[in-house]
Write a structure and sequence with these properties.
The active site is at 215, 249. Keywords: NAD, Oxidoreductase. The protein is of the alpha/beta class and 461 residues long. The protein has helices at 9-22, 28-44, 46-57, 61-87, 124-135, 149-162, 175-183, 195-207, 230-242, 262-277, 293-302, 334-337, 353-361, 376-385, 420-426, 451-460, and strands spanning 90-92, 101-109, 112-116, 139-143, 168-170, 188-192, 212-215, 221-224, 254-258, 308-310, 314-315, 320-321, 324-327, 344-350, 368-372, 390-393, 414-415, 428-436. The structure holds nicotinamide-adenine-dinucleotide.
Length: 461
């Protein structure tokens, strides 16, 4: 473990800065070797990671594999495959006035990064941003969430065993350690978590003029049009919503369904919950638990006074909350004002597509948005008349499987992005370079200025 208390944090930052100054992290060879180690660390310890995720969240084997373990190995493979290309200068045109010459963007590492992760996908949300920071040639401090304590402990144990300890360190802990970390100067901070702490991170970063990437959340809408294939739609929504018991930043937060298919949609969704998790979801080995009793009580509290049509049961001791459907909640209720981040799915209806679009646009810009429809006009209207970090048409969160799609929010759901080349670019400075030759030193730009020189300049640009 690198840091047991906040006192050692400045020393760790100094160690990483000294490493960065040696230039060691700049070579493609070092980066690729370390990336291979990230993959090895994750795959060698699959069983330990799975067990930690189960202890923290009751996460089942398949969800641990797809969303945390294979997610990282795929991200590493993609990064290694493209790294040398990403590192190359990116040529741009050079104007006539600067000829002969060439212009390009030269990616260069930023220095020492800070990565603060959230608890819901506690391995992925720290290691995937680190893959990006590492690929760009940075040193980094990793701060996993203290709420997923088993995964945090395991990360602190494994990182020094597999990775270059002069270039990366894990700092465990909560507010005290994060506060101390944020006093330090970093060259980039990537934070994943809620809006309130996002503001704290951004304020602290401003003190050092450190750029930030904020991966936040929000209420992600899901529009179900009457033309949608309902059987496929409910399977995909149910999978996306109740994976990790709804504790997924891109899970549908609420449904907007065309009124004419409301009953059929609800019936099929109810049947799908039983298909997936049985009559007693509490007994399903595939159904996760809420991270802690504070969040359990918060989610249960959202159900007060609501029209619960499915589920609604909870057990504080095991932090279980059943897959729950709420029909037509008051848009002003806390359920519809706060990000749910749990297994409760409100269902609201609309009559015209414009109503659904208007409802979405009245709220903060979401992290994700989904529209299920065979009607191109409906899809087009929802897609082009609203704003969201990421969108999936006719599926839920499958954009996460494509490394060529950057992942990030807009407005209050975040700023900046990562994943694939977007991650490499986030942790790089694209240095703008123009190289000129000594040839053709035409003197029209030099004083003394004359009418003739100005005229010629005007002709050239
Ligand atoms: P959390 O409680 O784990 O907090 C996130 C991180 O912030 C932790 O590492 C924590 O130690 C740190 N932190 C807490 N208080 C702090 C403080 N005062 N100063 C500095 N750091 C502090 O996670 P959370 O906030 O409950 O996360 C849930 C939110 O995260 C949801 O809104 C969800 O949508 C969002 N989220 C977003 C993404 C994404 O990729 N965009 C992914 C997962 C979760």
């Amino acid at each position: 473990m690198d840091a047991k208390n906040a006192n050692s944090i400045p020393d760790i930052v100094t160690r990483l800065r000294n490493t960065y100054a040696t230039g060691k992290t700049r070579s493609a060879q070092w980066r690729i070797q370390q990336l291979q180690q990230v993959k090895k660390m994750t795959l060698d310890n699959e069983e330990k990671i799975r067990a930690a995720l189960e202890a923290d969240l009751g996460k089942c084997q398949q969800e641990a594999w797809t969303a945390e373990i294979s997610y990282i190995s795929t991200e590493v493979d993609h990064t290694i495959k493209h790294l040398k290309k990403w590192m190359k200068p990116r040529k741009v045109k050079t104007p006539l006035v600067a000829q002969p010459g060439k212009s390009y963007l030269q990616p260069e590492p930023l220095g020492v990064a800070l990565i603060i992760g959230a608890w819901n996908y506690p391995w992925q949300l720290v290691i995937a941003p680190y893959v990006a920071a590492l690929s760009a040639g940075n040193c980094a401090i990793l701060k996993p969430s203290e709420l997923a304590e088993n995964t945090s402990r395991l990360m602190a144990e494994l990182v020094p065993k597999y990775l270059d300890g002069d270039a990366v360190a894990v700092v465990e802990g909560g507010v005290e350690e994060s506060t101390e970390l944020l006093k330090q100067r970093f060259d980039h901070i990537l934070y994943t978590g809620g809006e309130a702490v996002g503001k704290i991170v951004m304020r602290a970063a401003a003190e050092h003029l450190t750029p930030v990437t904020l991966e936040l959340g929000g209420k992600s809408p899901c529009v179900v049009d009457k033309s949608a294939n309902l059987d496929v739609t409910v399977s995909r929504i149910a999978w996306c919503k109740w994976m990790n018991a709804g504790q997924t930043c891109v899970a549908p937060d609420y449904i907007l369904v065309d009124e004419s298919i409301k009953e059929a949609f609800i019936e099929k969704l109810q049947a799908k919950i039983t298909d997936f998790y049985g009559e007693q979801p509490a007994d399903s080995k595939d159904y996760a638990r809420i991270i802690n009793t504070r969040h359990w009580a918060r989610i249960m509290g959202l159900l007060d006074g609501q029209n619960v049509i499915t589920g609604g049961e909870g057990d504080e001791q095991t932090r279980y909350i059943a897959p729950t459907l709420v029909l037509e909640p008051d848009p002003e209720s806390t359920l519809m004002q706060q990000e749910i981040f749990g297994p409760v799915l409100p269902i609201l209806t609309y009559r015209k597509t414009e109503e659904a679009v208007h409802f979405i646009n009245q709220r903060s810009k979401p992290l994700a948005m989904y529209v299920f429809s065979k009607d191109k006009l409906v899809t087009h209207a929802v897609l082009h008349q609203t704003s969201a970090g990421n969108v999936c048409v006719n599926d839920g969160m499958m954009f996460m499987t494509n490394q060529d799609l950057p992942f990030g929010g807009v407005g209050t759901s975040g700023m900046g992005s990562y994943c694939g080349q977007a991650g490499f670019d986030t942790f790089s400075h694209l240095k703008a370079v123009m190289e000129r030759s000594f040839a053709l030193d035409v003197d029209i730009r030099y004083p003394p200025y004359t009418e003739k020189k100005l005229k010629m300049l005007k002709m050239m640009v």
